[in-house]
Write a structure and sequence with these properties.
This protein has three helices and ten strands, in the order βββααβββαββββ. By secondary structure, it is an alpha+beta fold. A six-stranded mixed beta sheet has the order 7-1-6-5-4-10, covered by helices on one side. It has a two-stranded antiparallel ribbon with strand order 2-3. It has a two-stranded antiparallel sheet with strand order 8-9.
Length: about 160
């Protein structure tokens, strides 16, 4: 059995700048701990850099799944809405029930410390719609059509 966590926040919440006078950043320590518990290492720096390099009205759903436990995953919806001024993304994870207590504490800590935390959900089947492959490509209209894909990576 699995349990899901899903939130919307600024992509800036995925990283931390230890020195305010430097452009160097690290993966947010709480997020790194969650990835360690799930045994899934997501290339957050690459996703972060790519997000700011991509144009608006683009961005895919990225799914990073654990090879040993395929139902355990980290999901990031990197679609850049043309009207968004906060650089919001949706992201979350699916965990085994044995890890729920620890991951819930870590996830709440991550979300509660967000400067731009918009939405938080947890429960069973929260990621059901997002992970349905037949829903893709998802179509977004804003002056032109954009077809969002789901991209899976086994780590």
């Amino acid at each position: 059995m699995t349990y899901d966590f899903w939130m919307m926040a600024s992509i800036m919440e995925l990283v931390e700048y230890p020195d305010e006078t430097s452009d160097d950043y690290i993966v947010h320590p709480t997020l790194q701990t969650i990835m360690n518990v799930l045994e899934i290492q997501v290339p957050i720096a690459e996703i972060y850099e790519r997000f700011f390099g991509q144009s608006i009205h683009t961005g895919h759903v990225l799914v990073f799944a654990n090879k040993q436990q395929p139902h355990v995953c980290v999901v990031l919806d990197t679609y850049r809405d043309p009207l968004d001024q906060l650089d919001l993304i949706q992201f979350g994870w699916r965990v085994n029930t044995k890890d729920v207590h620890l991951v819930r504490q870590l996830t709440r800590k991550l979300f509660d410390n967000c400067e731009e935390g918009i939405r938080y959900e947890e429960g069973q089947s929260i990621l059901y719609q997002v992970l349905q492959e037949q829903r893709y490509p998802r179509k977004f209209y804003y002056e032109t059509l954009y077809e969002q894909q789901m991209k899976k990576f086994w780590v």
